[in-house]
Design a protein that fits this description.
alpha+beta; STM4215-like; eight-stranded mixed β-sheet; globular
């Protein structure tokens, strides 16, 4: 089994609509110092887990919130990437990964979207948050 972060990276890089726009430019946490736009960054915001009161405590199910940032030099390019992320993730149920290295996603639903303009830098970002229920 792989981590949800590894599964998300594989899933985004191998979804045709996303790959057509960003190729493999999907990065955990932050952009590299030199980057070609458009690109995606993603990060875990929180990590709630489903717990029980029995002796084990954990059920093996988590529902973290992930933030996906679509970066571009124009609003249209950032919006196109945001739309491709939504098509790849919103409502997704199933395995993420490849072969025997997968993580099981039980539900992936968008929670929020917001726009940031970095002014004179010529960079725009559209952030979207997803709650992703998965097995650990």
């Amino acid at each position: 089994m792989i981590t949800i972060e590894e599964g998300l990276l594989y899933h985004l890089q191998n979804t045709a609509g996303v790959a057509a726009l960003v190729s493999t430019r999907v990065y955990p946490n932050k952009l590299p110092e030199t980057v070609t736009f458009p690109a995606i960054t993603y990060q875990r915001i929180d990590s709630p887990r489903v717990l029980t009161h029995d002796t084990s405590g954990a059920t093996g199910t988590a529902r973290p919130r992930f933030q996906f940032d679509a970066w571009g030099t124009t609003y249209a390019s950032a919006k196109a990437v945001t739309d491709a992320i939504r098509a790849a993730l919103n409502g997704y149920v199933g395995a993420m990964g490849t072969g025997g290295s997968t993580v099981t996603v039980q539900s992936s639903l968008i929670q929020d979207e917001r726009f940031d303009d970095f002014g004179d830098a010529g960079i725009l970002r559209i952030s979207s948050d997803y709650i992703i229920w998965h097995l650990e």
